[in-house]
Amino acid sequence: xxxxxxxxxxxxxxxxxxxxxxxxxxxxxxxxxxxxxxxxxxxxxxxxxxxxxxxxxxxxxxxxxxxxxxxx
Length: 72
Description:
The structure is a single chain. Strand 1 (9-19) and strand 2 form a beta hairpin. The chain contains one helix and five strands; from the N terminus they run E-E-E-E-E-H. It has one helix at 63-68, and strands at residues 9-19, 23-27, 34-37, 43-45, 55-62. The protein has one domain (9-68). A five-stranded antiparallel sheet has the order 3-2-1-5-4. It is mainly β. Helix content is 8%, strand content 43%.
């Protein structure tokens, strides 16, 4: 069970593989890709226009989620 206090937000470098209305599928350097809910991403931008897209980028997510998904 998670602690009820807010989790720190951390930066994770990922490669975006697929995007849906509610989540992004990312590779973070291991063989297994993981889905990250967009509702948990506090910042995500890449490219000259700062529009989210495919390719290598950084996402900012709660530390508990990164831990749960094996991203840290």
